[in-house]
Amino acid sequence: MSEILVFCDKDETAFELVSKSREFAKELGATVSAALLGNGAAGKADDYFSYGADRVYVSEHSVLSDFYVATYADALQQIAEGEDVEFVLLGSTKRGKELAGRLAQKLNAGAITDANDVRVSDGNLVADRYAYGGNTLASVAVNTPKKVISVMPRTFEAGLREAKEGEVVNVDLDLKDPEVRVVERRDKAGDEVNLDEAEMLLCVGRGVQNKEDLEMIEELADLIGAEIGCTKTPASDWEWFSEERMVGLSGKKCKPSLYISIGISGQIQHTVGVMDSKIIATINTDENALMFNITDYGIVGDYAVVVPKLVEKLKSLG
Ligand SMILES: Cc1cc2nc3c(=O)[nH]c(=O)nc-3n(C[C@H](O)[C@H](O)[C@H](O)COP(=O)(O)OP(=O)(O)OC[C@H]3O[C@@H](n4cnc5c(N)ncnc54)[C@H](O)[C@@H]3O)c2cc1C
C-alpha cells in the first residue's frame, strides 16, 4: 500500500497537509504518515494522529536540534526510502522550498514546488502552480516512483481534530555533523508579523504615494483591528515596509475574513495572495482597475478623500 509522508518545519502547515492527505489516502488507497524531527518531536505524535496521520516517524537526533537543510534532507531521505513511501508532501515555507529540491535529488525523484492546489487524478497527485510570473497556472504531475511536492502554507484547512491512535516508529537515523554551524543568532531587524494568520488585512499599493498618508491608513487599520500589508513596490522599492508585509506570489498568502486594498491595481502576482479572503473591499480611483473584478465592496475614489471619511464614520460609531 502506498504511503503519503508529510513534513514541515511549521506544525500548523504540516497539520493542513496531514488533514488533506487523509482525503488523498482514501482515493489512492494509501496511508498517511508524518516525519517528526528535532527537539520535542516525540511529544507531538498525538497532535499528528488527531489530524489524521496513521503513523509518525520520530527522531530527536542531536544534529536535528537546529534546522540545517542538508541534514534534514538526509533525515527525510532515510525515512522516505521506505519502499511504501510514494509521495512526500512538504510545506513550501522558505526552508521547505529548499528542502524539496535537495530531498528530490537524493531520492532520484521529480519535485514540484509552491503548489497552490493538489488533487488526485488517475492514481497520482496533480499539483497546480503559478507559471510565467504568475500569469498562468500549470497543472503538473511527477512520474518518478517517488514524488516530492511542496505545498504553499494555508492552501488547505487543517480539519477537525479527532482522538485517534497511531503507530509511533522511532527511527535510528545515520546523520553526520552539519558542514555549516550557527555561530551567532541575532533578532531580525524590522517588524515581526504573521500576515498569513491575520483575520483583518489592509493592503497598501503604489496608488498611495505619500509616506505621510500612511498615518491615516494606520488609523483606519487600528480602528478595525487590521494588520497592514502591501504590494511589491512599497516593500521592495520604497522600503516603507519590511518584506514580511509583502502579499502575493513572492510574499505572503493570506486568508483574512476582510481584506481591503488601497491603491492596488489587482495584478495577479498580488491577488494570488488574497484570492481566498472571505470579503474583499477596494478603494481605487480607476473604476476599470482589475481589483474590482474580485471585489465584493468597492469605492471608486481617491484614498486621500475616502480613508479620512471612513475613519470619521468608524469613530462616530464608537
Ligand atoms: C515574478 C513576479 C513576482 C511578483 N510578486 C509580487 C508579489 O508577491 N506581490 C505584489 O504585490 N506584486 C508582485 N509582483 C509585482 C506585480 O506584478 C505588480 O507590479 C504589483 O502587484 C502592482 O502593485 P500595485 O497594485 O501596488 O501598483 P500599480 O499596478 O501601479 O497600481 C496602483 C493602483 O493605484 C490606483 N491609484 C492611484 N492613485 C490612487 C489614489 N489616489 N487613490 C486610490 N487609488 C489610486 C491606480 O488606479 C492603480 O490601480 C511580482 C511581479 C513579478 C514579475
Number of helices: 8
**Which percent bin holds the helix content?**
25-40%
What is the tally of beta strands?
15
Q: How far is the N terminus from the C terminus?
A: 60 Å
Largest sheet: 7 strands, parallel
Mean of all residue-level pLDDT scores? 95
The coarse silhouette is elongated
> Which segments are poorly predicted (pLDDT under 50) over 5 or more consecutive residues?
none
Q: Output the structural class.
A: alpha/beta
How many structural domains can be distinguished in the coordinates?
2
Structure description:
- The protein is α/β, with parallel strands linked by helices and 318 residues long.
- The chain has 2 domains: 3-170, Rossmann fold; 195-316, TPP-binding domain (Rossmann fold, 3-Layer(aba) Sandwich).
- 27% of the residues lie in helices and 26% in strands.
- Strands 5-9-4-1-2-3-10 form a 7-stranded parallel sheet, sandwiched between helices. Strands 12-11-13-14-15 form a 5-stranded parallel sheet.
- A hairpin with a 2-residue loop joins strand 6 (117-121) and strand 7.
- The longest helix has 18 residues, at 11-28.
- The radius of gyration is 22 Å and the shape is elongated.
- The structure holds flavin-adenine dinucleotide.
- Flavin-adenine dinucleotide binds next to helix 6, helix 7, strand 14 and helix 8.
Defining key terms:
318 residues, alpha/beta, Rossmann fold, 7-stranded parallel sheet, 5-stranded parallel sheet, 8 helices, 26% strand, binds flavin-adenine dinucleotide
